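User: Please fill in residues for this 469-position structure.
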């Protein structure tokens, strides 16, 4: 091929693999070359599973060559956030507490990707136990942003965002409890979707908050997310939160554009946005309007109310998960993780119940808004990626991420790149749909991407930056 295989989108790689103009082994080698060149500078991987990847790629090559093509992920490299269990492969949650943890079984999503013929490249960096923040007092360093290594990737699916933005992988899985798919997608300039609560099984994934956790893909394009979600979505009777509902063909639903859609812009969720971010959102909404959507303003309850409910619920549930280890070996956690989790010990039963009560009211308010519009639009982040040293790692963050409303409500939410700020760092738009209507969310995001040029721009690391590691 005349194109570097490692720079292909998932959809582009899938077309080439199906047509046999590219082999899974060739794609694997291209990905390995990119990982060897970029990962020493970005620390996206905590474990590279090269032997397993070669087995997967060679099997996919044989199957495709013999006409046993399984679908769009067959022969495609992918990585898993290191809180997702992999049978016989270390899963550490980026923590000292689990350095020797080797699960006996795969997480449900890992099984689905293997059955789809994917090529497992390894485990990706995360914030410890998917909480806390970038920390340097852990066994592995925090991942770096490919657009500027001095900047934050977003979290907690930090390695997933960095791996996709740098072209090391066309697909990475993340988890999202308060924005942990959408924030790295936003700061790293890629696409990431948090599906509706219950759409993707969480079995075999280390929990942070039982009622807020979601799993979903990060990819270079919205089309790639649609292809991936088509494999991941579905009912799992062993996950008590899984929804027993039919799964549509997300890829087929991308056609049609946004003409005739009504999109409600939640302006009050963008309060405090930087000049660059505000301009990027306005330009994206103007583009959607030009494509035929009707854009109106809607107002939801104050962000502070969503964030207060989130703190009560996530604080209590996160502490419940970690209470024993926090009491018996707190020194093994990173400072930021330990302090953030221990705050949950001070959430009273009354606080938790009131948080859940308010949650129901907030969910109803979003449902009401979506009765009059097809989608909601908002900023994903208020400003481009901050420098790592400027990230708030205090026990009580000054403000929870502005992504948390749709963890509270469980609605599907997509983050996609909507341009670049004056310093060259990505900007991001968030599109939100009705429960289990990921198809419409993806369709609108795909239409916007096809009408803009943002997906043609990739980050570049200067050779001396790589050599210096």
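Assistant: Residues filled in for all 469 positions:
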């Amino acid at each position: 091929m005349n194109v570097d295989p490692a720079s292909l989108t998932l959809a582009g790689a899938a077309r080439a693999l199906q047509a046999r103009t590219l082999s899974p082994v060739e794609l694997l080698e291209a990905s390995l070359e990119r990982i060897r060149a970029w990962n020493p500078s970005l620390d996206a991987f905590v474990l590279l599973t090269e032997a397993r990847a070669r087995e997967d790629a060679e099997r996919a090559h044989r199957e495709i060559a013999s006409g046993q093509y399984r679908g769009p992920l067959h022969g495609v490299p992918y990585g898993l956030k290191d809180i997702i269990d992999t049978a016989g492969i270390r899963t550490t949650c980026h923590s000292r507490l689990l350095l020797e943890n080797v699960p006996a079984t795969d997480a449900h999503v890992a099984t689905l990707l293997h059955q789809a013929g994917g090529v497992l490249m390894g485990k990706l960096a995360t914030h410890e136990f998917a909480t806390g923040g970038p920390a340097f007092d852990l066994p592995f360093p925090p991942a770096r942003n490919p657009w500027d290594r001095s900047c934050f990737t977003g979290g907690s699916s930090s390695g997933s965002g960095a791996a996709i933005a740098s072209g090391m992988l066309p697909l990475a899985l993340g988890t999202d409890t308060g924005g942990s798919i959408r924030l790295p997608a936003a700061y790293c300039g890629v696409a990431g979707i948090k599906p509706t609560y219950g759409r993707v099984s969480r079995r075999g994934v280390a929990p942070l908050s039982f009622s807020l956790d979601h799993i979903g893909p990060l990819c270079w394009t919205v089309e790639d997310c649609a292809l991936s979600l088509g494999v991941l979505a579905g009912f799992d009777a062993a996950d008590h939160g899984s929804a027993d509902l039919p799964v549509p063909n997300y890829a087929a639903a991308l056609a049609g554009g946004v003409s005739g859609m009504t999109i409600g812009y939640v302006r009050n969720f963008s309060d405090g946005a930087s000049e660059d971010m505000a301009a990027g959102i306005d330009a994206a909404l103007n583009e959607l309007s030009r494509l035929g959507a009707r854009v109106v303003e809607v107002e939801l309850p104050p962000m502070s109310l969503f964030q207060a409910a989130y703190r009560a619920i996530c604080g209590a549930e996160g502490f419940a998960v970690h209470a024993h280890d926090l009491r018996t070996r707190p020194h093994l956690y990173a400072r930021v993780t330990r302090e953030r989790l221990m705050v949950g010990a001070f959430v009273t039963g009354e606080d938790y119940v009131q948080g859940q009560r308010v949650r129901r009211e907030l969910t109803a308010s979003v449902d009401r808004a979506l009765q009059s519009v097809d989608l909601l639009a908002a900023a994903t982040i208020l400003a481009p990626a901050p420098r790592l040293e400027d990230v708030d790692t205090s026990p009580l963050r000054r403000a929870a991420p502005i992504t948390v409303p749709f963890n509270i409500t469980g609605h599907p939410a997509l983050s996609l790149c909507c341009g670049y700020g004056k310093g060259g760092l990505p900007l991001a738009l968030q599109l939100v749909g009705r429960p289990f209507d990921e198809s419409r969310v993806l369709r609108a995001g795909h239409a916007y991407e096809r009408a803009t040029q943002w997906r043609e721009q990739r980050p570049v690391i200067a050779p001396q930056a790589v050599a210096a590691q």
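For context: Confidence is low (pLDDT under 50) at residues 463-469.
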